Amino acid sequence: MDARGIITRLRDGERLDDAALTWFAEGLASGAVTDAQAGAFAMAVLLNGFSTPERVGLTRAMRDSGLVLDWHLPGPVLDKHSTGGVGDCVSLVLAPALAACGAYVPMISGRGLGHTGGTLDKLAAIPGYRTEISVCELKSLTAEVGCAIVGASADIAPADKRLYAVRDVSGTVESIDLITASILSKKLAAGLEGLVLDVKVGSGAFMKEMGDAEALARALVETAQGAGCMTTALITDMSQPLVAAAGNALEVIEVMETLTGTGVTPALWDITCALGGEALALGGLAEDAADGARRIARALDSGEAALKFGEMVAELGGPADFIERWPDRLPAAPVVQEVRAPRAGVVQAIDTHALGLAVVGLGGGRRRERDRINPSVGLSEIAALGDEVGAGEMLALVHAASETDAEAAAAGVVAAFAIGEGPATLPPLVHQRIL
Ligand code: URA
């Protein structure tokens, strides 16, 4: 077998068998496949598409290109993955809530991508928190605490690392087949028994249209199940930020308020319960998703999820007193400026993508791979769809490193809000459930 032969077959519309896909994934990991060949492969998949067995085959092969964890624990190993959005800090609440319900959650997460925030960047706002740990430490921490949210080490799905970097510069990121194999190869390498997927749709999601979100959700569920992991997807709304803040430390504040009951955000609470309920049902810890949602709500309400979060933070190098002292422990930006509504009316629509880009512009996300993130900057008190505002009233607060940065971000934020007459159409939080 050789790379050229495999690419030619793909180009000519022939189907690839598992042996060819495994050969290619191993070649990506070992370096036997060149960047040019990886790019041609990705383009052929994007143009011709994969069949379901091919998508499952590539996912399995990329998963197996590195370490695949195995577990012997008294409870199920579960996880959640989100396709990404703005103000989406669900993972930080859900992982400890699942752990409090008896699940084990080795949550291998990513950094921000484009206009969306990343779970690892949010956690990096907590002083001392280590997101880079060995697989050995991930295993022991998950077994001991019940959850560990960390980055993928080099030995997890190395074929995906190679292919992802090539896709990024070859115009092939958008392929649903490749997105599916990329996301799932990393997630399934954690040795999961059940996975719940949060596929976002709307102005702040990568999938702006319902048809695209549904196609991605179906591909993800079908492929994960084909690869042997019980999986459910919820298509959830991203036509506005999930919480009223966007930015790393600012979202951790929202998380801590919800975990400690000092200021619950209903959308964050409800989505956490819905996704967690699905995961507990998959793992046999609840009779069904509704029962699971009730269990997650109890874990949040009782403070058990908060305790798990505090334990995880302390074990990973963060402050031992984070649960009690989080307001003093998080960085704050030196400039805080109000963004004012240019006219009176009701918030009819929000360009959530633009809000995400405003946060990136403030330094809360990356424009280039090597950019350093400023954890303190971002937006808070963001007005929601349906909110009534008077002319000159506040639409959001900008947290910035300088007055100049704040002015630039404020202009982008004002432009992101469509304010008009009459009541707004409010979208449901969960649009669809895909089994
Ligand atoms: N996240 C991934 O890990 N891979 C993709 O291709 C897209 C999002």
In short:
This protein has 17 helices and twelve strands. The chain has helices at residues 3-11, 18-30, 35-48, 52-63, 90-100, 119-123, 135-145, 158-168, 176-188, 210-226, 248-260, 266-282, 289-301, 304-315, 322-329, 352-364, 403-416, and strands at 78-82, 105-109, 147-151, 194-201, 230-237, 335-340, 345-350, 378-380, 388-389, 394-400, 417-420, 430-434.
Task: Please give the domain count.
Answer: 3
Taken in chain order, the helices and strands follow as: HHHHEHEHHEHHEHEHHHHHEEHEEEHEE
End-to-end gap: 37 Å
State the name of the first-level CATH class of the largest domain.
Alpha Beta
Question: What is the correct CATH architecture of the largest domain?
Answer: 3-Layer(aba) Sandwich
Unreliable segments of 5+ consecutive residues: none
CATH superfamily of the largest domain: Nucleoside phosphorylase/phosphoribosyltransferase catalytic domain
Portion of residues within helices:
40-55%
Using the coordinates shown, work out and report the CATH topology of the largest domain: Pyrimidine Nucleoside Phosphorylase, Chain A, domain 2
Number of strands: 12
The helix-and-strand class reads alpha/beta
Tell me the major beta sheet. 4 strands, mixed
Mean pLDDT: 97
Widest sheet: strand order? 1-4-5-12
Gyration radius, to the nearest Å?
Answer: 21 Å
Number of helices: 17
Shape: globular
